[in-house]
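>> Question from a student workshop board

For tomorrow's exercise we were told to take the sequence and the ligand below, predict the bound structure, and bring the output to class. My setup keeps failing. Could a helper post the expected result so I can at least see what it should look like? The ligand is guanosine-5'-triphosphate.
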Amino acid sequence: MNAQKTIRNFCIIAHIDHGKSTLADRMLMGTGAMDERTRKDQALDNMDLERERGITIKSSAVSVDHVYNGVNYELNFIDTPGHVDFHYEVSRALAACEGAILVVDATQGVEAQTVANLYKAVEADLEIIPVVNKIDLPSAEPEKRALQVEEVLGLDASDCIFTSAKTGVGVKELLDAICERFHPPTGDPDANLQALIFDAKYDDYRGVIVYFRMINGTMKKGDRIRMMGVKRTFYVTELGKFRPEMQPNTEPFVAGDVGYMVASIKTLEDVNIGDTITLDAHPADEPLAGYQEPQPMVFCDFYPSGETQFDDLREAIGKLHVNDASFTYEPTNSEALGSGFRCGFLGMLHMDIIQERLEREGDVQLVQTAPTVTYEILSRGKMGETETLYITNPADLPDPSKIIEIREPIVRAEIITPNTSIGDIMKLCEQRRGIYKQQKFLADDRQILEYDLPLAEIIYNFFDKLKSITSGYGTMDYHVIGFNKDNLAKMDILVNATKVEALSLIVHRDKAEYRGRHLLKRLKQEIDRHLFEIPLQAAIGGKIIARETIKSVGKNVTAKCYGGDVSRKRKLLEKQKAGKARMKKVGSVDIPQKAFMAVLDTGEG
Ligand code: GTP
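>> Workshop helper replied:
Here is what the output should look like for this input. Compare the format with yours to find the bug.
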């Protein structure tokens, strides 16, 4: 049989925690790629951070074999993240597949990212197998959930496969269905090479390792390949598959195959996710469509701190960017904080993860400023003409006399909530300046609420509030729909009479005084007392709207280690030094990392 006919490329999509990674483990075991001895839970979540937090951050690809009706099939699948911030990872995975397994938790049913991810898979024209998972749980209602899949998602209830990723029930049936229902890849092995780069990783010894999906043509070790977008050529020194570890492969790769490639690529910029690989001697006429550029939603600055220098931070960011092209970065300079990078992320969790990965994988110490969104500013130019600017940092706002309008990004949010929490969710949305759109029926006990909300109001602990109101059952998905003008202004924060741009923020005027007072109270808690008194002020356009004072401490902190106990004194100084690693000196005041994040606490109920 033609080898291509027995390849199945698919991904696993679901709402967060519905069991994708555990199901992937079971499929690895069911196909012999992992056994009880080599087994580790969530095997494809190979980043420490993923295991600690119990979430998938990166999509992982793997190739396994499965015998169905006496024929050996090669299944290439990608486990994807479920959180809304990692939609981009999901879109990239979808583009490399012909099918998608949509996992729904038998106790929870359809949730916000179930709907969002299904739409993406349908848009990408993929065949879908719905799976109702966790059927071993006493509270599981598999038949009811299958009907919900039909009513809400429009997929046939009778197509659902019932599994327990915990016990392994239904996994063989699922593997069989994958071979039977998903189409094989259709590319032409004899055409000129076109391979899609869907991921990459930097390795200190081997350079950039490229993860690709063959669309057309054939590629083998020793080939001289060309990256069509960056127009650079390399010799392929190793080709292989993920089983799930990287395993070199001597056979040529043909249309439909998925694997990795090593080609002594030392320059990070030479590999672009979404770029097309072709043969230098017989290039394809056209590159593949590639990926849409990700749209960053929240921005913050990273500055080196402690022992870390600017160049160390630049190197760490560059390397991490190879592995996650969905964050953006550019050098920035702040009078108070020195040289650093302004970075853009797909959401708050994404920002958190990048900061932690930089510190762990890049071994750098950094200080991060509070996140903001992009604002659209209508202003008057030099000759009186109107111009539209986009700013991601309140410090870049033009002079107030030149500003005609400040417009903020608005998202359409779909919130799935238990009926009992509807009133409280509506109250929360209104508090956050939300505009009610509609309410839709989802199931007997659940509704979908649709609101338009300013993005800036969501990034400040909206998600936590939603979870606590609904006892963890509320879920949300959102996308940006445009910019709206509102009564917004920049609030400056002065620490010891010095304006600290990194603490300034754009606020709604109706909330400015409250936000200002609350922020100063939080700063007072976070900034240690110094040898002198520190006034804190919040101001809009030069008018002070709130003030606080941090009283002085008269004494040296080591003075209490009287009697020359050197080791105790040293310990105390070392503790202080460690604390300073995530601290920045602004004028003569030490501002700790926590103070920069104080703006996230809005004080709103
Ligand atoms: P993200 O990658 O973070 O989106 O989550 P995920 O969809 O990969 O979920 P994961 O596999 O991490 O599972 C979430 C939790 O559900 C874990 O505690 C699993 O042990 C548990 N779980 C997954 N499948 C089953 C199942 O079939 N039965 C039971 N009882 N628990 C399950």
